[in-house]
Design a protein that fits this description.
Layout (H helix, E strand, L loop, with lengths): L19 E6 L16 E2 L2 H7 L6 E9 L5 E8 L10 E6 L11 E11 L11
Antiparallel strand pairs: 1-6, 2-5, 3-4, 3-6, 4-5
């Protein structure tokens, strides 16, 4: 299966309501990102997802993230229900584009959401996901 995707998304500079800045302690998710999909994610606590991100659309975003005092790195974030997995609660899963040597559960993470990429999708198979 071949999928064509745009190489560049979003404006050169953020436009309102962006940037959206959120911060929280990294919590354990469903254990699918790194283990099942090979795309590790740092999960935002439900308080951040339910309060700070309650008014933005479900979907995929891009921006920057920082864990503790590490350097700021590019990220993509999935905000939604993960329909393929039939989640019963909305989650905010941040994939920081960097290979970390260890988990950082319990560490503070700051996220700057710069723009919306696309709506959440429901996939027909794990391979399509």
């Amino acid at each position: 299966m071949t999928t064509m995707r745009d190489l560049i998304v979003g404006p050169d500079t953020p436009t309102p309501p962006y940037p959206i800045l959120v911060e929280g302690t990294v919590v354990e998710g469903f254990g699918r990102g790194g283990k099942q999909l090979g795309i590790p994610t740092a999960n935002l606590p439900s308080s951040v997802v339910d309060q700070a991100l309650e008014n933005i659309p479900i979907g995929v975003y891009y921006g920057w993230a920082q864990v503790q005092d590490d350097i700021v790195r590019p990220m993509v974030m999935s905000l939604g229900w993960n329909p393929y997995f039939k989640n019963e609660k909305r989650s905010g899963e941040v994939h920081i584009i960097h290979e970390f040597k260890e988990d950082f559960y319990g560490k503070n993470m700051k996220v700057a959401i710069l723009a919306y990429i696309r709506a959440e999708k429901d996939y027909t198979s794990l391979e399509a996901l």
